[in-house]
Write a structure and sequence with these properties.
Blueprint: H1 2-25, E1 29-31, E2 35-37, H2 44-67, H3 75-96, H4 105-120
Antiparallel strand pairs: 1-2
Helix pairs in contact: 1-4, 2-3, 3-4
Length: 130
């Protein structure tokens, strides 16, 4: 059940990302979830949380490369990690910048997504010798 739910969520987020990319090429900016503006700046607290989540993800993979070189990572695990980083960084940035309470739906949404992806990305250990 969690795997199906995670596939639905990832499909919707992928469609959103592709449509936001195409819209940006056409001169229309879409920032999450469906705020559509024409060449207007994206709020600074959102840009800052995205920037910090990319840095957290990069730091994680840097440490992982240095100390756990042989472990493989599946795409769902990467998405899970990035969404967790986005949730954590957004929470701290929004709190430190005294963002309005109604903006926290962004954090809540990605927290729910990260919980679903966490359970969907767990490795299933099979015992072949039983």
């Amino acid at each position: 059940m969690t795997r199906l739910l995670s596939k639905i969520i990832i499909s919707l987020l992928t469609l959103w990302a592709v449509s936001a990319f195409i819209a940006e090429i056409m001169g229309v900016t879409i920032f999450f979830p469906f705020n559509i503006v024409e060449r207007q700046e994206i709020p600074y607290h959102r840009l800052s949380s995205l920037r910090l989540s990319i840095m957290l993800t990069f730091a994680y993979f840097g440490f992982r490369y240095l100390f756990l070189q042989t472990d493989k990572l599946y795409p769902i695990q990467f998405l899970d990690l990035y969404i967790k980083s986005l949730t954590i960084s957004s929470l701290f940035v929004f709190y430190s910048m005294n963002v309005e309470l109604r903006e926290y739906y962004f954090v809540f949404f990605f927290f729910v997504v990260s919980v679903i992806l966490h359970f969907a990305s767990k490795r299933k250990i099979r015992s072949y010798f039983n």
